[in-house]
From TrEMBL:
<dbReference type="InterPro" id="IPR037171">
    <property type="entry name" value="NagB/RpiA_transferase-like"/>
</dbReference>
<dbReference type="GO" id="GO:0005829">
    <property type="term" value="C:cytosol"/>
</dbReference>
<dbReference type="InterPro" id="IPR042529">
    <property type="entry name" value="IF_2B-like_C"/>
</dbReference>
<comment type="similarity">
    <text>Belongs to the eIF-2B alpha/beta/delta subunits family.</text>
</comment>
<dbReference type="InterPro" id="IPR000649">
    <property type="entry name" value="IF-2B-related"/>
</dbReference>
<keyword id="KW-0648">Protein biosynthesis</keyword>
<comment type="subunit">
    <text>Component of the translation initiation factor 2B (eIF2B) complex which is a heterodecamer of two sets of five different subunits: alpha, beta, gamma, delta and epsilon. Subunits alpha, beta and delta comprise a regulatory subcomplex and subunits epsilon and gamma comprise a catalytic subcomplex. Within the complex, the hexameric regulatory complex resides at the center, with the two heterodimeric catalytic subcomplexes bound on opposite sides.</text>
</comment>
<dbReference type="GO" id="GO:0003743">
    <property type="term" value="F:translation initiation factor activity"/>
</dbReference>
<dbReference type="Pfam" id="PF01008">
    <property type="entry name" value="IF-2B"/>
</dbReference>
<protein>
    <recommendedName>
        <fullName>Translation initiation factor eIF2B subunit beta</fullName>
    </recommendedName>
</protein>
<keyword id="KW-0396">Initiation factor</keyword>
<feature type="region of interest" description="Disordered">
    <location>
        <begin position="96"/>
        <end position="115"/>
    </location>
</feature>
<keyword id="KW-0963">Cytoplasm</keyword>
<dbReference type="InterPro" id="IPR051855">
    <property type="entry name" value="eIF2B_beta_subunit"/>
</dbReference>
Amino acid sequence: MSPLEGPTKELDEKYEEKVVKFVSDVRNGKIEGSNNIALATLSLLEQIIGDSENATAFELINVVRAAGRVICRALPRELVPANMVRRVLRAIRDEHRAHADQSGGTTTGGSEGAGESLQRLVLAAAARRGTLGAAQPDLREPLRDHIAEVRAELESSTGSICSQASEHVHADELILTCGHSRLLERFLKAAAARRNYKLIVAEGPDYKQSHAMAGRLSAGGVGVTLVSSASVAGVMSRVNKVILGVRATLSGGAVLAHAGAHAVAAAAKHYSVPVIALSPLYKLSPLHECDRHQLTAAGAPHHVLPLECPETGLAHVYAPRYDYLRPDHVSLFITSLGGSSPSYIYRLLSELYDPKDHQI
């Protein structure tokens, strides 16, 4: 077991009230949008770390992980808070390693040659465990700096992605999109500021939001055509590019997107139309394909069959909230770091999260 690992700890009562309030705000809609949820999660973890006086790296990891477990159990379909917990855990581990490298490394002699004996490995492990004690410096201040860097990244992620719009949308192209998201709308507006293109909007599960986005884009000078999701296959042969917002990007380059996106991506693959996914880094999750079933749960059926319809009492309506897109359905991811192919997502995940924290 790693010196930074230990048995599962329950959340301390002094932190529980803060976590419960955060969960309640997300459930009640007081905190909406993935970016706002990510920022709120960072603020919560910053408060928890700030209240942990004289805590070692081992203790900080335990308390942050305990808070993350409570949040994941209470919000099983919100992946962004778990991703922020992983980012903070990675920062704690990095600070611990940096301190261990500065204070350690000379505890055993070097007279045994290039090879490491079993005795040296045991002594080195004991020395690393010793650095977790009370002599370890206060990590709260450097962790605040790490959290401030992540917060700045979150606040600038939308602007960074939208600044790349003119590189991917060219003049006189016909673009197709599905559903609605704030990032998607801002990206399309940024593209319209420098490129003259036409847009087809396929209605998502919440058609009112799709109509509202189409109206705002049309008012901004974009030529918009609104179609039903059933018409996507018929118009795809004329489309130059598909641009989608994502709910989450999973390990291996798979995507969770709004319901209806799978039909769009399948039609695009049939006609060899490239599919571009807009994915900020905070939406990258180390979950695998086998975990997707717990995330694509059913939503409110009245979006599919309104309650006023006489058939409502005679039909069993299954309305999934999200669709799962395989990596081969996506041509390119646009993140704040630039464009990445699905096969490169594993590299981004390794830079963001420690493998020990994939399972919180």
